[in-house]
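Why run this: before we spend reagent on co-expression, it is cheaper to look at a predicted model of the complex and decide which construct boundaries make sense. The entries below are exactly what would go into the expression plan.
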Amino acid sequence: MDSTTTTQAPITTIAEVGRHEGETVTLRGWLYNLRESGKLLFPIFRDGSGLIQGVVAKNAVSPEIFDAVKGLTQESSVIVGGKVRADKRAPGGYELDVGNVQVLQRVSEADPYPITPKEHGVDFLMEHRHLWLRSPRQAAILRVRAEIIKAARGFFDERGFTLTDPPILTPAACEGTTTLFPVDYFEEQAYLTQSGQLYIEATAMALGKVYSFGPTFRAEKSKTRRHLTEFWMVEPEVAYATLDDLMDLAEGLISFLVKRCLERRRADLEIIGRDVSKLEKIAPPFPRITYDDAVKMLQEGHAKGAVENRFEWGGDLGSPDETYLSSQFEKPVMVHRYPATVKAFYMEPDPRRPELALCVDVLAPEGYGEIIGGSQRMASYDLLVKRIREHNLPESAFKWYLDLRKYGSVPHGGFGMGIERAVAWICGLEHVRETIPFPRMLHRLYP
RNA sequence: UCCUCAGUAGCUCAAUGGCAGAGCAUCCGGCUGUUAACCGGAGGGUUGUAGGUUCGAGUCCUACCUGAGGAGCCA
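The model came back. Tokens follow.
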């Protein structure tokens, strides 16, 4: 017998235990909790796929087995053999009549597992993030995150997009240096990327339809439930795309992600406590409003007392403004054509009203705010040079970027979707810190 | 960077300026269907740090440290 089995019984997982009703199986995992009632023990096991309660009756097992379970400590690693039995009292529908237990490593009671099945504060949990991940809710969130990432990649792969990875180390600031993490690159100043967009504009000119999926770094001292200093973005970029094409693409992507999660991760959404009826409404078409419309809505909201400050045309939408706008719809709302002055230098002006940029922000419902930001990119060489100078950006660093407008420039555009914000919305979480295994935030670099 | 709030047992929290406590966790004992099990008992404290006011400070004052929520900025 090797070290990973204790019986001849087939190894299975808690998630698949239903296929083995009435059979004896082997489960490999950890002790989640233990309840005792004299000569009856109720150990709850977890194995990463779910939870199952075991039953150990003193008169049904050897004294060695009974005593091994009786004193067992939380999160001790165990290999358990037992018979699967359907039971209406069990939350998962099945229980395990334990016949055999092998303890791989017993957690010392002198230094017990710190996270008990009781309440804990955020700071304590974040300090123990490496262990917090073992709790059923956190594991469920990570499974939803993985599903969203898989679905996003599948969405683009099946539509003829090519994955092109932009660099993470970049030579110069794209949009100003204040938000970048500096890195020493062989005694030269480099920065961690804050967006792969400029680079995938180049790959889009080579391959037509491309996307990137990777980490992004922002050194902003933001301290809110929507911000991480290190987060993941999926960014499509499409040659010959117009703003309307981009809105169609964003709408299709978001709808697909939600549908996939409802199809494949419904049980996890229920563990998390998500009201899935709100997600079931997410399907095209999404409402599309102009920035002008948004300003009107915000001013009406202010008149009704629902928005604190009166919003004036020309400013960027603040977080409370986005929350109000998104709360007016049951689906994500796409706000397009902002004033060019509040947006990035590379956005294409609206030919009918050059003071506007051909851009779109997608605001998730239920107050989640912006999850996508995108635009049609500036195609004219001369105008782009003018904008770079107006923004006091180092022209030499953008020489390669300007080349894209010199050699066969075409209308094109793309957008970026923040994975963590999308996960937070789909899971209905209070804070993005739970959407990534090890969040990096202003005051959090450990563990 | 600014605004607000909070730091008391391993954890979650009480304590009118007057003896520093409870639940959970840990240890000991009890219980054959428990569901954050329950019942009885035990151990566990430099009240974030440094000053100050006071007969007396966990409590009031000042500074600092740490964290949380929000603003700005963004995805």
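Confidence is low (pLDDT under 50) at residues 1-6 of chain A. The first strand of chain A starts at residue 11 and ends at 12. Bring this page to Monday's planning discussion.
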